[in-house]
């Protein structure tokens, strides 16, 4: 069961969290919501859970949610910048340079 990963939007902490079946925190990404845009600020996988695909699961869940909510994505975090370059299926979500968010 150690391979089971659940990703939840912990809105009260403005972050997505990955937890195992026992509820142990495996990793997270902090975000900031702006009108029409979500900025992913910092992603981290706890050392004991690295190499298990935790960060990728967090990224795909958070990006799928952004799409479902009609949000543009600002990848301020280096991990998200790399992830988005490798996963072009999310390219339409990325906020382009000079594109203004609705105020």
UniProtKB/TrEMBL annotation:
Domain N-acetyltransferase, first and last residues per copy: 8-95
Protein name per its UniProtKB record: N-acetyltransferase
One matching Pfam family: Acetyltransf_CG
Keywords assigned by UniProt, alphabetized: Transferase
Matches recorded under SUPFAM superfamilies: Acyl-CoA N-acyltransferases (Nat)
One term of GO molecular function: transferase activity
